[in-house]
Amino acid sequence: MSDKVYILIVEDDAEIKQFLQSSLLLNGYASICVSQLQHAMQQFAECKPLLTILDLNLPDGDGAQFISNIRSYSDLPIIVLSAKHSEQEKVRCFDLGADDYLSKPFGIQELLARIRVSLNRTSKMTLRDDVYQVGSLEIDMANQSVKLNDQPIHLTPIEFKLLFQLAQKPGKAFTHRQLLSAVWGIEYVDEIHYLRIHMGRLRARLEQNPATPKYILTEAGIGYRLAAN
Question: Do residues 112 and 208 share a domain?
Answer without folding.
Answer: no
